[in-house]
Amino acid sequence: MPPSDLVKVAIEWPGAFPKLMEIDQKKPLSAIIKEVCEGWSLGNHENFALQIADATNFYITEKNRNDIKNGSILRLTTSPYHTAVQLHERIQSASMDAKLESLKDLANASRDITFAQEFINLDGISLLTQMVESGTDFGDLLSFTLTAFVELMDHGIVSWDTFSVAFIKKIASYVNKSAMDTAVLQRSLAILESMVLNSQDLYHKVAQEITIGQLIPHLQGTDQDIQTYTVAVINALFLKAPEEKRQEMAHILAQKQLRSIILSNVIRSPTAINDEMAHQLYVLQVLTFNLLEDRMMTKMDPQDQAQRDIIFELRRIAFDVECDPNGGSIEKRKSMYTRDYKKLGFINHVNPAVDFTQIPPGMLALDNMLYFARHQQDAYIRIVLENSSREDKHECPFGRSSIELTKMLCEILKVGELPSENCHDFHPMFFTHDRSFEEFFCICIQLLNKTWKEMRATSEDFNKVMQVVREQIMRALTLKPNSLDQFKSRLQSLSYTEILKIRQSERMNQEDFQSRPILELREKIQPEIMELIKQQRLNRLCDGTCFRKISSRRRQDKFWYCRLSPNHKVLHYGDLEESPQGEVPHDSLQDKLPVADIKAVITGKDCPHMKEKGALKQNKEVLELAFSVLYESDEYLNFIAPDKHEYCVWTDGLNALLGKEMTSDYTKSDMDTLLSMEMKLRLLDLENIQIPEAPPPIPKEPSNYDFVYDCN
């Protein structure tokens, strides 16, 4: 039988000495449990189960039994069914203390899907909802009831559609009360969010019970978890609202000043924003911008007088002309309009309405132009007049560029796309203005005009200019400016010349190292540098390192030292009384391990000393510094490096001794640094010389070799 089917474990039972035994993974679990029970002379083995003995307490089932590793600690406990029956009874206890304890246990046990299934089969969820509806519990009792409910529902075993209006009303009432226990409020918000997201029917019921006005006060506190859950509920209501209700809801959010409340209480609060909050703000940002989708996908109707009036308005503001319907002949008026529309930079001078039939950006472009003309009139007039008086083909067409720019901004902000599950890319500056998209447009259209002049562009260069503008906007956005003014000043510094410099340096770094001769040179140098790194690692192993001993008792630190012999054949190691000053000689280290006996190097959570129960288990930093050397059949030498650097040196050195690849981050960065230095040194003489793609041809042989001089 291959030994992989046998797992060595320890099994605990309260009040008894732990048992060490081998589990045969081919045997049914029930047979193993029976064997364990008989060892402690316990009858009715079907009433027992095995659990992982750590903070999770997960039950072991036929499905997950292969996760048991050598050296695991298991616990014999009552079976999920019996535990569920007991808890079902205990949470109905008349004694408050007993009830609180059992609800605490239930909240804990419900995280395990095996237990959850059994408890749900006993109609446990109905029992919990009845307890909530009765309204007799509050404080800790209520918060543990709701925690257990959330944990059970998270397994997705029961559909959300089954809940009564009374239950929803009760949960909503906890959110609507001003002074509510934080834990209860947090769970209630989580339940409302799940209800809205998981059921269209419940969305309507929840939307009737809870108003935005009742949610807003929770954003004004200082507890970031509560704020996060509150924004999550608002997002869920927004996301599930039918198309026609969304604009109405956005209107209410604006009335209640949601944006400025989030800005002052969340974004500008002294507490740093955690990932979950950043995700919810990103979702809110996406949903807000998605309200523009309707206008973005609406074509202009050239027959619609109101829409044509907007174009007249743009003309009026720019050229300060009143549209006098009786002035002059029709022909004269037409030629005046055509002249003005040409100055405004529309593609179709005769009927500019046609320009807005392209979707996207549809009518959204016209909305932006009108907003710019009305709210930043001086800038608008300056741009139009500046470009309409030029005759040298260098004019920047305001109409055409506004339409293309609006389309580009919609692409950058992904208008119309649903929010992604795990993105937290929100921009604080969009929370600083009620009309942030239009303001964003106003800044960018002025940037476009400035870049156009810097590039001395003509209409043939239109697409090139748009590419540069896109790059300027993207680069300014990556710095997450806190306000629109900050964004503006960032763009000021990203002039066309600056973009050219950035592109040039990026190209230098890339192109130079992408041509074929250079790549060949890199490949040639790489093995030499790898050898150099390997020698450095082995020299460091020969110097040796002092490691801390692993002990669960945190009294005083004990140390041990390990070093490689100069001939790279043996690892010498031994205990030390205190941290050494300088090097420890080989002869003072009592133990030896021949390198030839080493079978493998194991790192992280696969190390045997990381699987043991204890404080170390929870410590992520320690996990990242742990490695073990496997020798003989099942013997390990376990290490915890003093820091990341030593960890990389030792794992690299040991892998090098075994003839394996050195894969640490430290090797990668050493390789990049040394390779790039070596390449630059070798290419120094080629400064400003174009390296040809193909090697130069070998010249023909000379007709005679009379010119060769023999020195002998």
UniProtKB/TrEMBL annotation:
CC annotations in GO: cytoplasm; guanyl-nucleotide exchange factor complex; plasma membrane
Under InterPro entries, the record lists: ARM-like, ARM-type_fold, ELMO_ARM, ELMO_dom, ELMO_domain-containing, PH-like_dom_sf, PH_domain
- Which Pfam families does this one have? ELMO_ARM, ELMO_CED12, PH_12
UniProt-recorded name of the protein: Engulfment and cell motility protein 1 isoform X2
Lineage summary: Eukaryota, Metazoa, Chordata, Craniata, Vertebrata
Q: What are the GO BP annotations of this UniProt entry?
A: actin filament organization; apoptotic process; cell motility; phagocytosis
What species does this protein belong to? Cottoperca gobio (Frogmouth)
As for subcellular location, the record says: Cytoplasm; Membrane
Q: Name one GO molecular function term.
A: SH3 domain binding
- PANTHER family from the UniProt entry: ENGULFMENT AND CELL MOTILITY (PTHR12771), ENGULFMENT AND CELL MOTILITY PROTEIN 1 (PTHR12771:SF23)
The entry's function note states: Involved in cytoskeletal rearrangements required for phagocytosis of apoptotic cells and cell motility. Acts in association with DOCK1 and CRK. Was initially proposed to be required in complex with DOCK1 to activate Rac Rho small GTPases. May enhance the guanine nucleotide exchange factor (GEF) activity of DOCK1.
The ELMO domain sits at: 306-477
* Keywords per UniProt: Apoptosis, Cytoplasm, Membrane, Phagocytosis, Phosphoprotein, SH3-binding
